Structures are given as C-alpha cells and as structure tokens.
Amino acid sequence: MKRLFLVLLVVHAVIEYDCGVEGKKPKVPCIFIFGDSLSDSGNNNHLLTSAKANYLPYGIDFPSGPTGRFTNGLTTPDFITRRLGFQNLIPPFANISDSNILKGVNYASGASGIRNETGTHMGAKISLGLQIEHHRAIVSQISGKLGGPEKGGEYLKKCLYYVNMGSNDYLQNYFLPQYFSTSTIYNPDQFAEALIHEYSHHLRALYELGSRKFALFGLFLLGCLPNEVMNHGDGTLCVEEENRAVLIFNDKLKELVNQFNRQFSDAKFIYINTALISSKSPLLDGLRSIGKSSCCQVRADGMCDPNKSPCAERNLNMFFDSFHPTEAANKLLATFAYRSLHRIFTHPMDISHLLHL
C-alpha cells in the first residue's frame, strides 16, 4: 500500500509538472469526445434511462458533486483535457451553449454503443451514430462562427477527437443473450468484425466532417469487471471467454488504425491499448491487488446504491461500481494514453506525439 501511494504521488507530480512547464495555453484549440459511460459527463441526466450517475456517491470527489460522471471524480477524458492545458472541462452536449462550442463538446452517453440496439433494454441513450449527428450540427455552428466551412475546417483539423466506444456492445448486447440475439448469430470473431465494419463507417463520417487527429481507445478486459466476475464467472477469477472476445475486437481495431493511416494521408489515428495498460502496467499493481470488488455498495444492476457511503480508500481501488473505474484508475490510464512509458501501450504513438503532427 505504501508503494502504491508513492507511485501515485510520482504520477501526480509528473502530470502537474508536465502541465506547468509547457504553459497554460491549450495544446489544441478544442477536444471532441465520443463514447459511453466511461466518458459521459452528464448527457444521460435528463434521459429516460436507468444508466444515470447524477446522484451520490457518484461525484463524491468531484468539486461540484454529482454531475452524471460514472465515477467518484474525474474521468479519463477529463484528465486528458487538463493535461492539454484547458482551464475548464469539456461540457456535455446536453448543456452546451453557443459561446463555448469552440473549445469542444462531450457527446458521450452511458449505455451507448457502436450498434444502435446496444443498451436499449436500459432505456434511452445516444448511440455513436447519433453522437456524430450531434457533432455535424456543432460543426455547422462552428463554421458559421468562424466565417464559413473553409475557416471552420482549418480550425477543426487541429482539434483532438477522443473516441472510446465498444464496451457496451459486449456488456449490454453480446454478453446478454436474454435481451439480444447477437451471440447466437455471430461467433466472437464475426461479431468483432461486424462491430469494426460499423465503427469504420462512423469514423469515416467524422473524417468527412473535418476530424484529423483521432485517439481511439481499445476495450478494457471486460471479463475482469466485478459485475462479470460475479455474474458470469466463479466470483474470484476473470471470465476468460469474455476477455478473449474483447481482445479479438482490440486486435481488429488496431488493424483498422493501420488501415486508416495508410488510407488518409492528411489524418492520424492512434490506438490506446487499454487492456494492456490495465493488466500489465506496474503503476496499476496496487489497484489490481486490492481493487477486485466495487468501492461503492451496488444495486442488482451493478450501479451504486444511492446515498450509501463508498469505501474510504478510493484512491486504492480499481473500480468504483461494478462496471466503472475509480478516478485513480482513470488518472493512470490518462497518463499512459498521453505519454506512454512504452510503445506497446499506444500505437503508433501516444497522444502527446499525435498533437505535434
């Protein structure tokens, strides 16, 4: 425990030092965030859905309390935003105002996926396709503010496009045969191929809207989530069948990154190996060793029970509820995504190098 505390102090110092020495001016003009509950900052708050986190203990460590973030504090894109030098976090699309769209928008929605039907058993959500349609409207507004499509395009190509999608296509679709038939239609390789095929169309749509710098996050080892271990495993070990399915998707996503980098010479796509970072990074050893269960008391659906006190040592736990990482885990993932300690964690480069292209 003492070793982990020292490691966290070092990581914190590195992050603060990095931001300080490179000045306060943001390294990119804007950030656009696409994803699910790992990135949602409040878009689901007013939707008719069970996938909401706008109540305590969620946000217990966030300065203003619960916001709709599915963790105790900051998310991974929040840390990336800070690392890039932004004074304020990127607002959710649901709360966006015309005055701040030039800094970026967070479109992420809890329970959403690459496939439109993913998560529908939980209620309303904003699928990746709909998130991109929202972005299309924002692009039009930005072009109008800057004097036309040409000037808007010049501005938008300098921005970072953060995309973390696909977890729910497994957790809230393929791994739920009681609600969805995908696991009877596709074997794991076929399902991953179908997902990547649809994902590629969405990414091409973003490219056509002027996106040029893409950070694509691979999936976590979903079979190691507390919910999956308890409901689909033996209660102690990871569900390896689920992990194998996820790794097939991750491999295909990395291949897609290579394909797009060959195809689009004026853009750059990078792949963040979330599964490898979470399973092999020495900085996460302490979190893994004591964080195999959720920090908060959870309901039957794996979400935190409202107003029940979470664990005290949240900085030493990997998971806040049965699905989502703690702020501490998010911070370490952001650290590796931004400036990787080894090239195996990001491909073909990390975010810090992507921004200099």
UniProtKB/TrEMBL annotation:
UniProt cross-references to InterPro entries, sorted A to Z: GDSL (IPR001087), GDSL_esterase/lipase (IPR051238), SGNH_hydro_sf (IPR036514), SGNH_plant_lipase-like (IPR035669)
Coiled coil: none
One MF annotation (Gene Ontology) recorded for this entry: hydrolase activity, acting on ester bonds
Pfam families tied to this protein: Lipase_GDSL (PF00657)
Predominant localisation class: secreted
Keywords assigned by UniProt, alphabetized: Hydrolase, Lipid degradation, Lipid metabolism, Secreted, Signal
Signal peptide: 1-20
Record GO biological process: lipid catabolic process
Superkingdom of origin: Eukaryota
SUPFAM superfamilies: SGNH hydrolase
Location(s) in or outside the cell: Secreted
CDD domains: SGNH_plant_lipase_like
Keyword Nucleotide-binding recorded: no
GO cellular component, one term: extracellular region
Family under the similarity heading: Belongs to the 'GDSL' lipolytic enzyme family.
Name of the protein described by the UniProt record: GDSL esterase/lipase
Species of the source: Acacia crassicarpa
